[in-house]
Amino acid sequence: MKQASTFSQLKHDGIKISMLTCYDYPSAKIQDACGIDVIFVGDSLATNVLGYAHQNDLSLEEMRHHVRAVARGVERSYLLADIPFAASSSLASIMDAADQLRQDGVDGVKVEGFKPEVFEALAQSEVDGWAHLGFTPQLIEKPSMQAKDDESAERLVDECLKLEAAGAVGVILELVPGLVAQRVSQALKIPVIGIGAGLHCDGQVQVWHDLIGLETRVYKHAFRQCDAHAAQTEAVKAYIRLIAD
Question: Which is catalytic among the residues 62, 112, 164, 174?
Answer without folding.
Answer: 174
